[in-house]
């Protein structure tokens, strides 16, 4: 069991091109397996629930880089802002404002990705491309001095059809390129295109992902 986690990480890393980062998604998995991954050299872990993250963080090495990947409620933002390395789920104007407000209070600057909604599923959160262009065009975001917009995050529809998945990842990468060109041309901080999970990360990488978020393939099925 324990060696399995390390082997899975090694296998995935061997297939990732240089420059694509691996976020090990540890949600619903216990500290022991996170430690196994840590011993295998993994330092970036992703969690999607604030309470769970807070409980685990104190039991694990301090040099872990925690990424938040789930939908955030505004009232919980203040709990993760002091230590979080990257928030992938910047999915609304309101949440970006709140992250900025909480970070300002403690004199921190927090890195955030703009979460895009391109998948067909109604349930997925995030800005639609239209909403995001609208948001960026008003340039109010430039006044948010305590967040660093570091790129985009997106998910493809949960379908078998590979062509559809490919089309959606291509759309997310195109948004990333357009935003980069239009708003961040000289900003090296805007560099992350976070897309790809266990079942579709190979396609995501082919479509230009720079950061994959993988849980099941590393840690096995989650028990909810
Ligand atoms: C759970 C989750 C993942 C990882 O999913 P797996 O299929 O287990 O690899 C990736 N991204 C987000 C946003 C998630 O919520």
TrEMBL record:
The keyword Protease does not apply. PROSITE patterns: UPF0001 (PS01211). Pyridoxal 5'-phosphate (PLP)-binding protein, which is involved in PLP homeostasis. PANTHER family: PROLINE SYNTHETASE CO-TRANSCRIBED BACTERIAL HOMOLOG PROTEIN, PYRIDOXAL PHOSPHATE HOMEOSTASIS PROTEIN. It comes from Candidatus Caccoplasma merdipullorum. Pfam families: Ala_racemase_N (PF01168). Its cofactor is pyridoxal 5'-phosphate. The modification N6-(pyridoxal phosphate)lysine is found at residue 27. Residues 4-222 form the Alanine racemase N-terminal domain. Keywords: Pyridoxal phosphate. Belongs to the pyridoxal phosphate-binding protein YggS/PROSC family. This is Pyridoxal phosphate homeostasis protein. GO terms for molecular function: pyridoxal phosphate binding. InterPro entries: Ala_racemase_N, PLP-binding_barrel, PyrdxlP_homeostasis. The keyword Lipid metabolism does not apply.
